[in-house]
Amino acid sequence: MRVFRGFSRPVPSPTAVAIGNFDGVHLGHVALLKRLVDVAGTANLPATILTFEPHPREFFNSASAPARLSTLREKLELLAANGVEQAMVCHFNAGFAALSATKFVEDVLIGGLQTSHLIVGDDFRFGKSRSGDFAMLQTAGQQSGFLVEAMGSVTLGDVRVSSSAVRGALADGDMQLAAGLLGRPYVIDGRVRHGDKVGRQLGFATANIRIKHNPLPMSGVFAVEVTGLGDAPLPGVANLGIRPTVGGTRPILEVHLFDFERDIYGAHLSVRFVHKLRNEQRFPNFDALKAQIAADALAARVFFKL
User: Fold this and answer.
1) Cα gap 257→269, rounded to integer Å
2) 159 part of a folded domain
């Protein structure tokens, strides 16, 4: 997938475009992307998305912004897996936030993306103070020669599929609902780095994965499956959080793989969270922590029927 940073350099040819933050790339996003790929294929146009970094809500009020479900890398990988050929990532800063709705259409959609067909969610707003809406896009399309369509919401049972619904499921520890909304288990990617070897001292060596999700969408101890180390996923148990017992302050993902002893420093892993075992907690001493880790590992083995 080709990635364009910003809109100052136009894409090389007309495009079919979908716009969104695509955080988590859930089933609602997947439906929109399927429509985009179908339209692009019929019109012989590259399937292209326009997204923003950081999330606009992080720019306007970082303290109250929602936890990210996916890093930019994870998001782009998921978009590519759903058939997206090009992505334009616009840096959401003061200048971009100040673009009027008219300038957004002129400079980004027409000048930067050479939009021929545009697909947005039915609640999409854009431009300074969110002044642009679907009706304005339709008018602009009629005047400038591009087609515009809106996608309705996708539901799972009586739940509207959204990034907020996924965050709620993760925060509640409902990994089954989260997987249903996403269309797959929730995943965090990262590279294995050297840690402080506390896990090894406790008898459970871990792969330490430094992550960029801060704040975390969830925390706790989970039964997980790890890909990136062979053809099949490997089962294990993982702690996602700040490790309060050892005085941790930064989020980290620690994964203990069952019956596995290879050196995997530097490997890039994908960790699937399939079942929550318990919340993260502070223990009075290392002996209590060690006993609980052993119990967690046993619970995860029971879950996987190992």
Assistant:
1) 12
2) no
Enclosing domain of residue 113 = 2-153
Domains contained in the chain, number: 2
pLDDT digits (tens, 9 = 90+) for 136-195: 999 999 999 999 999 999 999 999 999 999 999 999 999 999 999 999 999 999 999 876
- Terminal Cα distance for the chain, rounded: 39
Q: How far apart are CA 303 and CA 288, in angstroms?
A: 23
- d(C-alpha 216, C-alpha 68), whole Å: 7
Same domain, 12 and 142: yes
In a shared domain, residues 143 and 13: yes
Q: What is the rounded (10 degree) CA torsion for 96, 99, 103, 106?
A: 20
- At 221, list the tokens: 């101890």
Q: Which candidate, 266, 276, 204, 201, places its Cα nearest to that of 240? A: 276
- Whether the pTM exceeds 0.90: the reply is yes
| Residue pointed to by tokens 């000048």 | 111
Reference 108, options 190, 51, 42; nearest CA is 51
Q: Are residues 18 and 87 both part of a single domain? A: yes
Show the tokens assigned to 70: 């996916």
pLDDT at 22 over 70: yes
